[in-house]
Structure formats: C-alpha cells, structure tokens
C-alpha cells in the first residue's frame, strides 16, 4: 500500500522539479538575452528585459541606466561579454543570480581596451510569465562558496 502511495506521488514530484528547472531556465534565458544585447549593442532588446522600477548600487534608476548605456555604446566598440552564473535562488516571484561578469571593450577615445571583471548579484522579478531585471548589486561573495 505504501509503495502504491509513493508511486502516485512521483508524477507530482516530477512536475514540481520540472517547474523549478523551467523557472531557472527562464532566468538563464533573460541573462543570456542581456549578454547578447550588450555585445550586439541592441539597445531595445536590452531595455526589454529591464523593469521600469530598476535601481542599482551605482544610483541608476531606469532613465539613468538608459543614458549610461547609451554613453557606453557611443564610447566603446568590439564589446565582448562573458557571464558565468554561479548560483540562482528563486523565491516566489523573485530570482537572485550570483554571477561573475567579464567585459572586454575597445574605447574609441583612448584607443585602448577596457577590461571589467566584477562579481554581481542580479535580482529579477517575475511579471506574468517572464522575468525582468529590477536590481544589480555589487557583490563580494567568495568564489569558492558558489562553485
């Protein structure tokens, strides 16, 4: 009787695991969309994944972020982005991504390459069926904690 009860629970457990995996995959998809939009300098695609309620550790709200990214795209060429996702935590409709961002870009004014190597925490909020970026924070997490 117990085995029969456990067997009946398996589809429910599988469905919950599948649901959780798909939520993580949705978050990964948004991060990858952002990575590609930055490299290809596709402003509209980048802002499509950022919430109007955006706020970050550098004092940017949505409008200031638009201005800052526009300035960056004007000053830099040959932008290469690599994002390594260390950990994703999802609670209800909020996802926190612990990641490391590497950006290499050519500064046209100084005729020099700029390298950024920064650990960040990106917070996303699920709106209807998709996630939007609502915050980016500086992070000082240790690499070994999330490997």
Describe the structure.
The protein has helices spanning 2-39, 43-47, 62-75; strands at 50-56, 76-91, 94-107, 112-127, 130-138. With 147 residues, the chain is α+β, with helices and mostly antiparallel strands. It has one domain (2-146): Nuclear Transport Factor 2, Chain: A. The longest helix is centred in the N-terminal third of the chain and has 38 residues, at 2-39. The mean pLDDT is 87.
Give the strand line-up of the largest sheet: 1-5-4-3-2
Strand content: 35-45%
Reported by name, the CATH topology is Nuclear Transport Factor 2, Chain: A
Number of domains: 1
Q: In percent, how helical is the residue content?
A: 25-40%
The number of strands is: 5
Order of helices and strands: HHEHEEEE
Low-confidence region ranges: none
CATH architecture: Roll
What coarse outline follows from CA principal-axis ratios? globular
Please work out how many helical segments DSSP would assign: 3
């Amino acid at each position: 009787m117990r085995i029969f009860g456990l067997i009946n629970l398996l589809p429910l457990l599988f469905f919950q695991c599948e649901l959780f995996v798909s939520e993580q995959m949705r978050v990964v998809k948004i991060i990858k969309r952002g990575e590609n939009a930055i490299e290809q300098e596709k402003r509209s695609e980048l802002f499509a994944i950022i919430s109007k309620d955006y706020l970050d550790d550098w004092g940017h709200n949505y409008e200031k972020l638009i201005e800052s990214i526009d300035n960056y795209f004007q000053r830099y060429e040959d932008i290469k982005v690599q994002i390594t996702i260390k950990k994703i935590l999802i609670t209800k409709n909020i996802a926190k991504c612990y990641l490391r961002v590497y950006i290499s870009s050519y500064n046209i004014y100084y005729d020099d390459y700029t390298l950024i190597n920064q650990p960040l925490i990106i917070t996303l909020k699920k709106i209807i069926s998709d996630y939007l970026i609502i915050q980016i924070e500086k992070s000082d997490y240790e690499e070994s904690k999330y490997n």
